[in-house]
Amino acid sequence: MKQFMNRWLLLFVLLLGMSALACNLPFGGEEEPTAVPTTDDDDDGDSNQDEDVEDAPDEEAETDEVVDEEDEEDEADTAVTEETNDAEPTEESSLFSDLFPESLTVSESVQQFDTLNSYEMSMLFSTTVNTVTQEVEAIMMVSTDPPQTHMTFSFSGFNDMAGISSMSLTQIDGTNYMNMADFGCVTTSETELEDDAFGVMDANDFLTDVGEANLVGEETINGIETLHYVFDESVIGEEMAQFNWAQGDVYVAKEGNYVVRFVMEGEGVVEGFGLSEDENGATPGPQIGMIHVEMNLTSINEPVTITIPEACENSGLADSDFPVLDDASEATSFGGIVTYKTETSFADAVAFYQDSLAADGWVYDEDASFILENSTALLYFSKDGRSLSIAITEETGTNAFNVVIFEE
């Protein structure tokens, strides 16, 4: 910002200097009229003739002076015109375009949000086909130090969501927690649920299909000084949607160069958005409808507190009721099911569960169990009327094995 202000001041001083210089430049001097010598007539001199002879030089001098003044005025006008033409690029509109680009390819110009310490972002995706409107609304809180993320989603207008109207995703200390109302919590390790799952709300991702946007001014958005750019359907890639018409606004922070607000609406094919089902929950094919996308960034670099959802507090490998191998990775737990990956040898993994569960009072059912050496094991245990099964299967092409623990 300081650099921008310095450029403003520099151009302003140059303008003032040019104006002052134009006013004081000597465009031509005032020459004294050349005197015409008079001739004395000693003989027959008429007094009137003498007066005429004496007046003639004055008339000629006045004529020369008028001509000189007109020449000076023409030279001055020419010089001023040249100065004015030279100064044209420094008019206000040109100054603005010098300080900020008049247009930019949004996806190539904005910074990623990971340059911020923390922020809150809200996003809304909606489509309307005929009279049916479907919406997905999401809110994400992010902290980069320590790295933590919490996202909530709400859905409306859908017929095939199996009763799910909302869900949350939380990422803390390398563990991911997905909580769905009436379904419980699913806990996974960070390597199982890649970071990209938490990047679905990164505005820069869907901006990759937006081409060149044009600068129209400056605005304060969400308390942040921004540059306002606009675009239409002509710069939207077909990968995003086929629009009959569209208009959009992008607000980019002056300091930091990140997107503060993105708004787009238009009419086009909504099939690619996955938000257009008929009243029976089926997608009949490409449909023309209204599309609205909006993103807002707030609470930038403000303190944020993210905690494990209450429904997930007792989930995960650390809180499992059953033993797990020390090198467990890519773990998932949901209800009474725990899965993970291990590189422990097949024989050692089988022995681990036979020994550790026996020590905990579980009785191994050898007759019901099945072991295919170095490949597959189905181990069954019972305890106080409870049944437990352990499946150990080889992961094709690797030295790892997948373990599934399930209490019936």
Structure description:
This protein has 408 residues and is α+β, with helices and mostly antiparallel strands. The protein has helices at 2-24, 47-87, 92-99, 106-109, 203-206, 346-359; strands at 103-105, 118-129, 132-144, 147-156, 166-172, 175-180, 184-189, 212-221, 224-232, 243-253, 259-269, 288-298, 329-334, 337-342, 363-364, 370-372, 376-383, 386-394, 401-407. The protein is 23% helix and 37% strand. A hairpin with a 5-residue loop joins strand 10 (243-253) and strand 11.
SSE layout and pairing:
Layout: H1 2-24, H2 47-87, H3 92-99, E1 103-105, H4 106-109, E2 118-129, E3 132-144, E4 147-156, E5 166-172, E6 175-180, E7 184-189, H5 203-206, E8 212-221, E9 224-232, E10 243-253, E11 259-269, E12 288-298, E13 329-334, E14 337-342, H6 346-359, E15 363-364, E16 370-372, E17 376-383, E18 386-394, E19 401-407
Antiparallel strand pairs: 1-8, 2-3, 2-12, 3-4, 4-5, 5-6, 6-7, 7-13, 8-9, 9-10, 10-11, 11-12, 13-14, 14-19, 15-17, 16-17, 17-18, 18-19
**Radius of gyration of CA atoms, rounded to a whole number:** 41 Å
Query: So what's the CATH class of the largest domain?
Result: Mainly Beta
Shape: elongated
CATH fold field value of the largest domain = outer membrane lipoprotein receptor (LolB), chain A
Which series of helices and strands comes N to C?
HHHEHEEEEEEHEEEEEEEHEEEEE
Number of domains: 3
Low-confidence stretches: 1-42, 47-51, 79-97, 192-201
What is the average per-residue confidence, as pLDDT, rounded to a whole number?
73
Largest sheet: 19 strands, antiparallel
Strand content: 35-45%
The first-to-last residue Cα distance is 63 Å
- CATH architect. name of the largest domain: Clam
Please state the structural category. Answer: alpha+beta
Tally of individual helices: 6
DSSP strand tally: 19
The helicity comes to 10-25%
